[in-house]
Specification:
Blueprint lengths: L2 H14 L4 H16 L26 H12 L1 H4 L33 H14 L4 H12 L1
Helix pairs in contact: 3-5, 5-6
Length: 143
């Protein structure tokens, strides 16, 4: 294959590979399943609290996500039973969506998915949805 044909073929292949939101979500599920062995939601841990959720003081430089952290802080027992859909579920130290909101370097500070899931979970919980209903809604929107 000559150089010109090589580059034209490469450009055509690159143009053909378009990542859609649906394919990106599917890829996230595959990676999560490969790393964790499952893409199921975790069981909420007994006695879980919001003690490790990033503090209000630590959020002063990131006011756009402060409301999501407040929402998660109010319902840790629910958020601990939700799988995060951004792909972080397979990282060491992560157990649930709650993990994304914990510590000074919380994943939810920089990720656009985690805060959206936290806000949605809180809104649904406030509206009376059960954990299973919240899981189904998050899976439908983010999964």
């Amino acid at each position: 294959m000559d150089r010109r044909r090589f580059f034209l073929t490469g450009a055509a292949l690159a143009g053909a590979i378009v990542i859609t939101p649906r394919s990106a979500r599917a890829a996230t599920r595959v990676v999560t399943r490969m790393v964790t062995g499952t893409d199921e939601h975790p069981k909420p841990r007994p006695g879980i609290t919001a003690a490790k959720v990033t503090s209000r003081e630590q959020l002063e430089r990131t006011p756009l996500v402060a409301d999501a952290f407040e929402a998660v802080r109010a319902i840790p027992q629910i958020v601990d039973g939700l799988r995060c859909h951004c792909g972080c579920a397979g990282l060491p130290g992560f157990y649930s969506l709650l993990s994304c909101f914990e510590g000074p370097n919380a994943m939810a500070l920089a990720c656009p998915i985690c805060p959206g899931e936290g806000r949605m979970a809180a809104r649904l919980h406030k509206g009376g949805a059960t954990l299973d209903e919240i899981r189904a809604a998050l899976d439908a929107k983010f999964g």
